[in-house]
Design brief:
2 domains; 11-stranded mixed beta sheet; 4-stranded antiparallel beta sheet; globular; 456 residues; Alkaline Phosphatase, subunit A; Arylsulfatase, C-terminal domain
Length: 456
């Protein structure tokens, strides 16, 4: 019987409208949505690309990517170590605000973060516009449910759940196999860098055969993180070319060059499958290079783990054909977490939850925009006798930077315009700047204190 009740008629009309929207509107929305490829490498030094000044290594594929888009001279990781930067990048928040102030590890007594249930990650937000999201490579934000990639919005995962690998060929950490295809344990053969490059190409091939659904691929390499274990043929090539090179440096150079070749293959796959012209590609590192294994951070002080510039300032570039001018370069400052809103704006995706990141899409498109924020914060929690479970921090306003590089050491104040190497501590001679930055840092620490960082 046909309903005559006006209320029932309206309800049916609403249902029909919803069905039509679900079937039609996603296709309309997807038509102009770019694919997104974020390539995050692990522990790459600010001076360890040939396009950033290295003279003893060759990174032609990354160099080409940089030359085809916009290079950043003032891009910063959210933290000088792995997990926090990854949490910030994927959530658009300062890492403490999503429960990841430090490195997530296998053993609870040495793990310093737990991704909060309320954190909205990039794949979840992009899904509102029909994106299919995948992570290939290193996850490092949780080893078990509910904090694995498929639990947190990704549609596909082919990679490694853990932090570092003890061996690039056996892919174990503490004798545990963290390699996964979706949630299934796998045990593939081969160097991890080669596997991740192959799996990224496999994913691009799969997406090329689909309809016009856009994709988000988060390709996170382990390289050039320790152990410094390049394939032997790559090491021999470096040693033959760079006569007199230090053994440790030669191994690191070979590992970076091997990774560069893998990235080149992925970009070529993108090109061959006709996806390059409509793909926004981001390249950056999770923190600075590790000096103990021969990394170079160019003219910057210190490296990975440190709150000095060498620990947090990283290489970065963004390519988007016909949108970003090739060969462009900027000193506009941004953080890892700013990629979240930038990608969302480029994709035409809106969200209502609070974030700390700010979009720098206008800069990418060649437009003027004001600085993203007045105060810039960095923080890291760590264990062991060196840190004792405490934190180290930094805050910057303009050219002034206040930092504490050890929880047992004093606060140090530098003017980066006059002293880019952070050699002259001005804490005693500039009390007003010191006090204002210290007050801002204390207030931020109080804000972080509202979010738990251990497993409930």
């Amino acid at each position: 019987m046909t309903p005559t009740n006006p209320t029932l008629i309206r309800q049916r009309l609403v249902r029909v409208a919803v069905v039509i929207c679900c079937l039609i509107l996603p296709q309309v929305c997807r038509a102009d949505a770019p694919n997104i490829l974020i390539i995050l490498v692990d522990d790459l030094g600010y001076g360890d690309l040939s396009c950033y000044g290295a003279t003893d290594l060759q990174t032609p594929h990354i160099d080409q990517l940089v030359s085809e888009g916009m290079r950043f001279d003032e891009f910063y990781a959210n933290c000088p170590v792995c997990s926090p930067t990854r949490a910030a990048l994927l959530s658009g928040r300062y890492q403490d605000m999503v429960g990841v102030p430090g490195v997530i590890r296998t053993h609870p007594e040495n793990s310093w973060g737990y991704l909060t249930s309320g954190a909205h990650l990039l794949p979840e937000v992009l899904s509102s516009r029909g994106y299919h999201s995948a992570i290939v490579g290193k996850w490092h934000l949780g080893l078990e449910a509910p904090n694995r990639p498929l639990d947190r919005g990704f549609n596909h995962f082919h990679g490694y759940l853990g932090d570092m690998m003890d061996d690039y060929y056996t892919h174990r950490r503490h004798d545990i196999n963290y390699m996964r295809l979706k949630n299934k344990e796998i045990d593939p053969e081969g160097h991890a860098t080669d596997l991740f490059s192959d799996w990224a190409c496999d994913y691009l091939h799969q997406r090329a055969r689909k309809d016009n659904t856009p994709f988000f691929l988060y390709l996170a390499y382990n390289a050039p993180h320790t152990p410094i274990q390049p394939p032997e043929e790559w090491l021999q090539k470096v040693q033959e070319r760079e006569t007199g090179i230090d053994d440790d440096r030669a191994k690191l150079v070979a590992l970076i060059e091997h990774m560069d070749a893998g990235i080149g293959r992925v970009l070529e796959c993108l090109e061959q499958r006709g996806q390059a012209d409509n793909t926004l590609v981001v390249f950056t590192s999770d923190n600075g290079g590790y000096l103990k294994v021969g990394a170079s951070n160019g003219p910057l002080r210190d490296g990975k783990q440190a709150m000095y510039e060498g620990g947090i300032k990283v290489c970065a570039a963004v390519r988007w054909p016909e949108k970003i001018a090739p060969g462009s370069r900027t000193d506009f400052r941004a953080l890892s977490m700013d990629l979240f809103p930038t990608v969302c704006e480029a994709a035409g995706v809106r969200f209502s939850h609070p974030i700390d990141g700010r979009s720098f899409l206008p800069t990418l498109l060649g437009k003027e925009q004001p600085p993203l924020r007045d105060f810039w914060f960095w923080r890291r929690r760590e264990g062991g006798n060196r840190y004792g479970g405490k934190t180290v921090e930094a805050v910057r306003r303009g050219d002034w930077k206040l930092l504490q590089n050890s929880p047992f050491g004093p606060l140090e104040l530098y003017n980066l315009a006059d002293d880019p190497l952070e050699e002259h501590d001005l804490a005693e001679s500039n009390p007003q700047e010191f006090n204002e930055l210290a007050a801002a840092l204390r207030a931020e620490i109080q804000r972080y204190g509202t979010v738990p960082w251990q497993k409930p």
